[in-house]
């Protein structure tokens, strides 16, 4: 009997887009980030994609010390693969953005594959009062932001991180980013089998239509053959629908409050674990199984939790 398809669920626990006003469920203290990450792993997430937040007001930070307050606890209380973001917040250089991954040498980290507008400024008009002073201007200022990931940034990040044996989550927000990735592989920066996160619905990137998912997948097949792994992240309201479709196309899925604050149309999610539970139920009801962390390690060829530096 052929083995059931194993779907790797990643959960992106807090991110750098949403702010505390938008949802009381968005974790930002070390305790809450750790607890929600552990509960997401218990619900079925094999990979935890992590950003840090200032514990006093939820502001975005990439200070390695802030990661240090939750990484060991998550490792101690779950077997999940830890994936550290190198996306940073709106103002950081690539050197600053890779500092947490360099310090903690996780099994995975993100690698953003192109420069782009990356905006969530329309959210600034949706709230009339804000919990913390920094929030409104942070959200509104994303209108002026260029998310910088030049070829030289990618090359510098890849070179600095290479000795750590970290598997990258290659963040591709549009079709051109797949070509950037192919180019980087051709000049020896990354080796197959790579792990691509197809991202849909960020303002500045490709939209969240299923046609676009099919097109991205077909383009990746052409560029990378069959020697690659892929997953789908739909931002906002597209999250569950695109994840469901991806799982039916033999792909992997990413959910979490970084990408959407909702559990269904107009209804805020209570936690990251609630989103993981929902996509797990869908995946299983449609006939596949979710991968355990060790199965994800085997599928993606990760170095192992004993080789991280936390
Ligand atoms: N926020 C997501 C759309 C990163 O952390 O490097 C993409 C992301 C990037 O997760
Ligand atoms: Zn992220």
Q: Give the CATH superfamily.
A: Aldolase class I
Q: State the distance separating the first and last CA atoms.
A: 41 Å
The set of bound ligands, ions and cofactors reads: (5S)-5-amino-3-OXO-hexanoic acid, zinc ion
Number of strands: 16
Major sheet: order of its strands?
Answer: 2-3-6-7-10-11-12-13
| Rg, Å, rounded | 18 Å
Layout: helices, strands, pairs:
Elements: E1 6-7, E2 9-12, H1 30-43, E3 47-50, E4 52-53, E5 60-61, H2 64-68, H3 71-77, E6 81-84, H4 94-97, H5 99-104, E7 108-112, E8 116-117, H6 134-141, E9 146-147, H7 151-161, E10 167-172, H8 175-186, E11 194-200, H9 210-224, E12 228-234, H10 239-248, E13 252-255, E14 262-264, E15 267-268, H11 272-285, E16 289-290, H12 293-300
Parallel strand pairs: 1-16, 2-3, 2-13, 3-6, 6-7, 7-10, 10-11, 11-12, 12-13
Antiparallel strand pairs: 4-5, 8-9, 14-15
The structure holds (5S)-5-amino-3-OXO-hexanoic acid and zinc ion.
Written overview of the protein:
With 310 residues, this protein is an alpha/beta fold. It has one domain: TIM Barrel (Alpha-Beta Barrel), CATH 3.20.20.70. The chain has twelve helices and 16 strands. It has helices spanning 30-43, 64-68, 71-77, 94-97, 99-104, 134-141, 151-161, 175-186, 210-224, 239-248, 272-285, 293-300; strands at 6-7, 9-12, 47-50, 52-53, 60-61, 81-84, 108-112, 116-117, 146-147, 167-172, 194-200, 228-234, 252-255, 262-264, 267-268, 289-290. Strands 2-3-6-7-10-11-12-13 form an eight-stranded parallel barrel, surrounded by eight helices. The protein is globular, with a radius of gyration of 18 Å. Zinc ion is lined by residues 12, 15, 49, 51, 85, 87, 110, 258.
């Amino acid at each position: 009997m052929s083995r059931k398809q194993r779907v790797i669920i990643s959960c992106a626990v807090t991110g750098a887009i949403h702010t505390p006003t938008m949802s009381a469920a968005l974790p930002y203290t070390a305790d809450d980030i750790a607890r929600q990450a552990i509960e997401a792993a218990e619900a079925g997430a094999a990979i935890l994609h992590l950003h840090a937040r200032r514990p006093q007001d939820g502001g975005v930070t990439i200070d390695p010390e802030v990661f240090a307050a939750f990484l060991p606890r998550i490792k101690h209380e779950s077997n999940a693969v830890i994936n550290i973001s190198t996306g940073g917040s709106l103002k950081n250089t690539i050197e600053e953005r890779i500092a947490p991954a360099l310090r903690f040498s996780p099994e995975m980290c993100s690698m953003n594959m192109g420069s782009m507008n990356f905006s969530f400024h329309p959210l600034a008009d949706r709230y009339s009062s804000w919990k913390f002073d920094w929030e409104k201007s942070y959200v509104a200022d994303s209108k002026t932001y260029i998310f910088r990931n030049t070829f030289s940034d990618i090359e510098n990040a890849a070179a600095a991180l290479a000795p750590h044996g970290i598997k990258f989550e290659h963040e591709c927000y549009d079709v051109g980013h797949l070509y950037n990735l192919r180019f980087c592989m051709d000049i020896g920066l990354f080796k197959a089998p790579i792990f691509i996160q197809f991202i849909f619905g960020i303002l500045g990137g490709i939209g969240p239509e299923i046609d676009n998912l099919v097109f991205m997948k077909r383009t990746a097949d052409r560029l990378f053959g069959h020697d690659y792994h892929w997953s789908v992240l739909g931002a906002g309201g597209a999250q569950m629908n695109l994840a469901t479709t991806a799982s039916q196309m033999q792909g992997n899925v990413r959910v979490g409050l970084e990408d959407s604050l909702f559990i269904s149309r107009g209804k805020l999610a209570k936690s990251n674990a609630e989103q993981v539970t929902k996509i797990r139920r869908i995946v299983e009801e449609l006939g596949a199984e979710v991968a355990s962390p060790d199965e994800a390690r085997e599928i993606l060829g990760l170095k192992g939790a004993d080789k991280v530096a936390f």
